[in-house]
Amino acid sequence: MTAGQEEMLPRPRRGKTTKPEEELPIISETYPGPIVEPPPASNEELVTIETALEIFADDMSPVERAKLEAQVENLQKLAEGTHRGRVAKPTLTSKILLVMEAIDAVEKKGRNEAQRYDYQRATDVTKEVRREFIKQGLVFTTSINKVKWTMIPREKGSPNTLVTVKGKFTITDGEQTFSFKGAGMGQDVGDKGIYKAITGMLKYGLRTLLLLPDEKDDPEVARPDEYPDMNAGIQITSANIPGVKQGGRQSQATSAQIKTIKEAARELMLSADGLAALIVSTLGTGPVLDPADSENEQAKQVVAYLEELPFDGCGLIAKALVEAVHASGGA
Q1: How confident is the model over 284-300, as pLDDT tens digits?
Q2: What is the pLDDT of residue 20?
Q3: Which of 7, 34, 37, 267 is the most buried (most CB within 10 A)?
């Protein structure tokens, strides 16, 4: 093979050399968990560091002094509630106080012409409160957990229902929650009684939570027309009152109790047999009326029964009726 033939032969290719891949360093980190904001610093801690910085500033290195100055700045921001550029969130209590401050009083816009008095309507209370709750981002809910029905028959038409409800109110801003109990009573024809009871419970629940007055003037001050007999002379009577033990407590039903029961029964439009049914539901016993007697005669029998009741028993009847009047929106 000549030299020229050797040059024509293909030369073997040089093998490519590959560099070994560099191994990346393995970094192992432990998850630190959720970031928890430090609690607000107390004034004492802030004052201590500021005092130390003022006294020992000349003896510190620039690095040490810079660290302390940064710590003081952070503590000041925490104390002001603006750490990391965020304003401290108001609490649920502070939001409720803002609602209380915004609502001065809810005017009495309801009028009972039969008994000639004004009253605070539930719709007016909820309207005022709802507006302020929305401003503060508050949600108010009601849940009913107990209902008691008492059927009160009438001479004509559907019977009345006296309904007592008990439940729970809950107010929340999405982060904090506050709950409290409430009760209401209402009476009306058929199924309307329970809605009156729920409405009464809501109205007085909101009034209790926010301490809502029903008039701007002092409610304890008597109106000029409230006591028409004030100019009458004061009558001094004997201290020996029947049914009252000297030095003791009342044992017999009083005329004031009977009067309260009569007025409340008229407000609720209770018939004599309806009032008798309420007495039975409250005390477990009551007057037995003859259906053949007239309404007037039955009313006399109910009054006579009330007059024979002990003071405590008659007081329970009066209390039940007054609560029913309030729950229905009366005075």
Answers
A1: 788 887 777 787 888 88
A2: 55
A3: 267
| C-alpha dist (Å) from residue 51 to 54, 68, 76 | 5, 11, 14
Q: How far apart are CA 273 and CA 155, in angstroms?
A: 9
Nearest CA-CA partner of 137 in 98, 165, 104, 82: 98
145's tokens: 């957990």
Cα torsion for 254, 256, 261, 267, to the nearest 10°? 170
Tokens of 217: 């003037």
pLDDT for 83 beyond 80: no
Whether the per-residue pLDDT at 11 is higher than 70: the answer is no
Going by C-beta distance under 8 Å and a sequence separation of 6 or more, which residues neighbour residue 71? 49
pLDDT band at 226 (very low <50, low <70, confident <90, very high): very low
State the pTM of this model: 0.44
Which among 175, 216, 205, 226 has a CA at the least distance from the CA of 327? 205
d(CA 264, CA 247): 31
From CA 159, how far away is CA 140, in angstroms rounded? 34
Q: What pLDDT, on the 0 to 100 scale, is given for residue 87?
A: 53
Residue 151: C-alpha distances to residues 58, 137, 276, 326 (Å): 88, 41, 11, 19
Distance, first Cα to last Cα, the chain: 133
Residue 317 near residue 260 (C-beta atoms within 8 A): no
Within the chain, strands assigned E span 110-112, 117-119, 139-152, 160-172, 177-189
What's the CA gap between 143 and 166, in Å, rounded? 9
pLDDT tens for each residue of 169-208: 999 999 999 999 999 988 888 788 889 899 999 999 999 8
